[in-house]
Design goal:
Blueprint lengths: L29 H10 L3 H25 L4 H27 L2 H4 L5 H10 L4 H6 L4 H12 L3 H9 L8 H21 L3 H6 L42 H6 L1
Length: 244
């Protein structure tokens, strides 16, 4: 598949549904998607689910860093994408905190609920378990990133009545897709990607930070701490990846 098919403009075109991936257990079952829908009754529920989605993506990209730690060009971009998702989660929380109780308790719009249902529940461990090679990782990125995840993120931000963050969010989403575009262009050949195998048995006591030694990158990390939830639960270690 040519890299031009994954340009920034791809996010505005028709994309495949996530539903075909349900059979592999990579993303969610229909029942799990329905469970997500039942929870989305208020605007506050939308924010909670949107933040959960962004945090899951942090864990996914960190997992990719571990699985492809020996492919520096890919690991660096995966790390940058994880940092983007951290920032998105933080921004969603920021907007949620400034909204009034009246806005947060208002009924969730049916159209927004349908967008979340299309994504379903993102299970990081399930997705990482099915990764055999770089092509598999690219397939998940195509399905999620060029699906509806960022559309949901942007629409949820737009609930902010001040609209002050909308230009910033739109700019960040374009920058995020640019990084993905660079990744696809760096590895344009499908056969080559299929031959780059995931690391399932990393060396003992390998530290993810060692991957970036000597380079202008540090492993992504977030100060975000959610009420009753510790963001560190999304830090996927190399040991966890190898055992998945």
């Amino acid at each position: 598949m040519r890299s031009s098919e994954h340009s920034i403009q791809s996010k505005t075109t028709s994309v495949p549904s996530l539903r075909p991936m349900d059979e592999t257990g990579s993303i969610s079952t229909i029942s799990e998607s329905m469970a997500v829908m039942k929870k989305l009754k208020t605007v506050s529920n939308l924010f909670e689910q949107a933040i959960d989605n962004e945090e899951a993506m942090v864990g996914l990209y960190r997992g990719f860093v571990g699985l492809f730690s020996d492919v520096l060009d890919a690991a660096i971009i995966f790390n940058d994408l994880a940092s983007d998702e951290e920032r998105h989660a933080f921004e969603l929380e920021t907007v949620q905190k400034v909204l009034s109780k009246t806005v947060l308790t208002a009924p969730a719009h049916p159209e927004m609920i349908m967008k979340f249902e299309a994504i379903g529940k993102l299970s990081v461990k399930k997705m990482l378990k099915n990764i055999r090679n770089l092509e598999d990782a690219f397939g998940i990125i195509r399905s999620i990133e060029y699906g509806r995840l960022n559309e949901v993120f942007e629409c949820t931000i737009k609930i902010d009545p001040s609209k002050e963050m909308i230009p910033l969010i739109q700019k960040e989403i374009i920058q995020h897709y640019t990084k993905i575009d660079v990744l696809f262009k760096r590895f344009p050949d499908q056969e080559e990607r299929a031959n780059i195998l995931a690391v399932r048995k990393p060396k003992k006591n390998v530290n993810v930070g060692e991957i970036f030694q000597g380079h202008d990158r540090q492993p992504s990390s977030s100060p975000l701490r959610r009420k009753n939830r510790d963001f560190r639960r999304f830090h996927i270690t190399l040991k966890e990846v190898s055992q998945s």
